[in-house]
Amino acid sequence: MEFLSFGTIFFIVAAVVVLLQLRSVLGKRTGSEKPPFNPYATRAPKDGEAKPQGNVVSLPVRKSAAEADFSDIDALAKPGSEVNNGLRAVRAADPAFDPKEFLNGAKIAYEMIVTAFAEGDRKALRGLLAKDVFDGFEAEITARDQRGEKMQSSFVGINKIDFVDAEVKGSDTHLTLRVVSQLISATLDKEGKVIEGDPETVTEVKDVWTFAREMRSKDPNWKLVATEAED
Predict the structure, then answer these.
(1) How far is 28 from 99, CA to CA, in rounded Å?
(2) What's the CA gap between 78 and 29, in Å, rounded?
(3) Residue 161 and residue 172: Cα distance in Å, rounded?
């Protein structure tokens, strides 16, 4: 029997020590170990997350109507009122709807329409009015031209603008506004004499205008579909 050299014994002892150290660090397999972490494995969804399907990444669940933020609408219309409920319905149908932004746009449209009508600018009106409203405006402009009359108008500004109605009709959204504005307006006959209004006096005008938009349309613009003067 050959004797093991000192060098061989040393390496054997060293190997045993290394194995014992690895065993103490890694431990034994008992069958109850947790499986290795798998970043693609499904996990229990947190609150507000959709239940994952397979390896699909979980996305936040869209908030329900009860959880949605309507603070911007509540600031413009009393909560619980018909107008507020109508605006909420519009938001539900079109999540991008911003009531404050709409009012700002309506102010611009109001001034453009009033000015274009006074100047007889049919081209400008055509892009801002629904067909039946345009037909009514165009008929009045034509009759005015035939009588040789001229309308002078200067837009001063809008004192107040509020929502008075809002509703969703099928794929159409209708928003009705009460507009209180200040205008200087007068109509002159063909000889230049004032026959209506006053070219130097600022007059308060109250209108109720309804704008509409087809939500499925690619055209983001709203058009005036109804007008009514308020006493």
Answers:
(1) 66
(2) 67
(3) 22
Average pLDDT over residues 136-161: 96
Q: What is the DSSP string of 115-156?
A: HHHHHT-HHHHHTTB-HHHHHHHHHHHHHHHHTT-EEEEEEE
* Secondary structure tally for the chain: helices H, strands E: 6, 5
- pTM, entire model: 0.70
Q: What is the pLDDT of residues 177-199, one digit of tens each?
A: 999 999 999 999 999 999 999 99
In degrees to the nearest 10, what's the CA dihedral of 49, 52, 55, 58? -10
Interatomic CA distance for residues 142 and 155, integer angstroms = 22
On whether the CB atoms of residues 153 and 118 are closer than 8 A, the answer is yes
Q: If 0-12 CB within 10 Å is exposed, 13-18 middle and 19+ buried, where does residue 129 land?
A: buried
How far does Cα 158 stand from its chain's mean position? 24
Across the range 202-225, mean pLDDT stands at 92
Spatial distance between the Cα atoms of 131 and 135, rounded to a whole number of angstroms: 6
Do residues 89 and 166 lie in contact, with contact meaning Cβ atoms separated by under 8 Å?
Answer: yes
- For residue 58, give Cα distances in angstroms to 34, 35, 65: 23, 22, 21
Please name the amino acid found at residue 67.
E
Task: Give CA–CA dist 17/142, Å, rounded.
Answer: 107
